[in-house]
Amino acid sequence: MRPTPPGWPRIASALYYRDPGRAIDWLVKAFGFTVRVRIDSEDGTVHHSELEFGEGLIMVGTEGARSGRPDRAWCHSPKSVDGANTQSMMVYVDDVDRHCAKARSAGATIVEEPRNTDYGAAYWEDRGYECIDPEGHHWWFLQRIRNPEG
Q: In what helix (H) or strand (E) does residue 56 lie, and over which residues does it extend?
């Protein structure tokens, strides 16, 4: 494989929001993302953004109906399609209980409280929780408790 462009992970996901500017601010406050790039259009919509969490990267953009780009009509916030999701994000954090408390205080809907899932000695054990952001995207946050034996 050829190397990625400097500073880019091998895979990056894009999430679409009705109000991506507000979503970016919320993701920073609630989940601890940092804004690497944010390019606003003259009309105030977010043209492009890159948010980092550790070595991970997501892009947050304006859903198609609001972006003014007919070629992006397929990009939707879950809020615009009765809560439907075609993806959910999974992020490893250092302290899942503290992260959950911060997300809850910022207004995340906690779907599943932090709990341990042990896949057995040959695999791993994680502690994690699931939440939903204000526009309906599902997020899983995990903390590795134990790596596989062997």
A: strand 56-62
How many Å apart are CA 24 and CA 137, to the nearest integer? 13
Per-residue pLDDT tens digits for 94-138: 999 999 999 999 999 999 999 999 999 999 999 999 999 999 999
**Could you tell me if 10 and 4 are in contact, meaning their C-beta atoms sit under 8 angstroms apart?**
yes
What is the rounded CA–CA span in Å between residue 67 and residue 62?
Answer: 5
Lookup: tokens for 121: 């000695």
Angstrom distances, CA of residue 41 to CA of 36, 49, 56, 118, 120 = 17, 11, 25, 46, 50
Q: Using the 8-state DSSP alphabet, how is residue 86 labeled?
A: S
Question: Which residues lie below 8 Å from residue 24, measured CB to CB, with a gap of 6+?
Answer: 33, 35, 38, 46, 49, 51, 60
Q: Is the pTM of this model over 0.85?
A: yes
Region of residue 83 (phi > 0: left; psi between -120 and 50: alpha; otherwise: beta): left
Planar angle of CA 125, 29, 147, nearest 5 degrees: 15
Render 3-47 in DSSP notation, one character per residue: PPSTT--S--EEEEESSHHHHHHHHHHHH--EEEEEEE-TTSSEE
